[in-house]
Amino acid sequence: MTKIPDIIIAIDGYSATGKSTLAKSIARQFGFTYLDSGAMYRAITLLCLERDLIKEGVIDEAALRHILATEGLDINFREESRTYVADRCIEREIRSMEVSSFVSPVAALAFVRAFVDDKLHDAGRRGRVVMDGRDIGTAVFPDAQLKIFVTASPQVRAQRRFDELKAKGQEIPMEEVLANLKERDYIDSHRETNPLRQAVDAFVLDNSSLTMEEELVWVQGLIQGRFQIYQ
Ligand code: CDP
Fold first, then answer.
1. What is the pLDDT along the chain (231 residues), one digit of tens a residue?
2. Which residue puts its alpha carbon closest to atom 25 of ligand 1?
3. Does the Cβ of 10 fall within 6 Å of ligand 1?
4. Going by DSSP bridges, is the β-strand pair 129-133/33-36 parallel, antiparallel, or unpaired?
5. How many CB atoms lie within 10 A of CB 62?
6. Could you tell me the fold of the domain covering 8-224?
7. In the chain, domain spans
8. 188 lines ligand 1 (CB under 6 A)
9. What's residue 2's pLDDT?
10. Given ligand 1 and candidates 34, 98, 129, 134, which is best to mutate, with the most ligand atoms within 8 Å of its CB?
11. What confidence score (pLDDT) does residue 3 get?
12. How far apart are the C-alpha atoms of 113 and 193, rounded to whole Å?
């Protein structure tokens, strides 16, 4: 395993750009902990759906705020970053289209972001963490020592997400997948609190026509150059 300093690596970018696959590979390669901030927003969205807090598209903000403040939500990751709430694995449920269609409005709520940020700050305190999301390099860890902003064409991203969902047995029409990605990109980049933005000091990775291997070579080169690692 290549040794690099105890830093925080922030990977941000648009929906379904493969940030989590990239982050997991980096974590494996360098012995870092991987943290999926999107899974936290998805877990809170699942909570909203299961407690019936979204009626005709409107979120009962007061009720959600009360639940997070009084009960909290014990989101934790096990077995290569599968998402749990307490001892219940919710990995499958949070990747559903239903959660995807409500997650951006839920994630736009300032008190929801504050709740997630607290958990991310806790996890990042020790360093050696790679986190992916929308605002990690701009707002959660603006001092992260390495920031990568991932992008790819909407069609490529929709195809990847369509294939992923299909592999999990969810046959969602391609147009629906594409529309969801575009809608989330819009809400995520136009919300008031910590919108999706490329940090000025982020390295941009457009992986529209890169294989996973090519992408990893690019990242390894970046990390080795940035931290002067010569083997
Ligand atoms: O996997 P995918 O790129 O589709 O999304 P995700 O990373 O699981 O994130 C789901 C949603 O959570 C995003 O569309 C954002 O609305 C929200 N999110 C956010 O607002 N800030 C983050 N740091 C991470 C995710």
1. 567 888 999 999 999 999 999 999 999 988 999 999 999 999 999 999 999 999 999 999 999 999 999 999 999 999 888 999 999 999 999 999 999 999 999 999 999 999 999 999 999 998 999 999 999 999 999 999 999 999 999 999 999 999 999 999 999 999 999 999 999 999 999 999 999 999 999 999 999 999 999 999 999 899 988 887 765
2. 38
3. no
4. parallel
5. 9
6. Rossmann fold (3.40.50)
7. 8-224
8. yes
9. 63
10. 134
11. 75
12. 8
Q: How far is the CA of 222 from the centre of ligand 1 (A)?
A: 24
Helices 19-30, 212-226: inter-axial angle, 10-degree rounding: 50
Q: What is the DSSP string of 154-167?
A: HHHHHHHHHHHHHH
Quote the CA–CA distance of 177 and 181 in Å, as a whole number: 6
Give yes or no for residue 16 CB within 6 A of ligand 1.
yes
What tokens were used for 165? Answer: 């969902």
The response to whether residue 180 sits with its C-beta less than 6 Å from ligand 1 reads no
Q: Which of 12, 22, 37, 41 most suits a substitution to test ligand 1, by most atoms within 8 Å of the C-beta? A: 41
> Beta strand pairing status for 33-36 and 146-151?
unpaired
Q: What is the widest separation between alpha-carbon atoms in the chain?
A: 57
What letters, b where the CB count within 10 A reaches 16 and e where it falls short, cover 121-143? eeebeeebbbbbbbbbbbbbbee
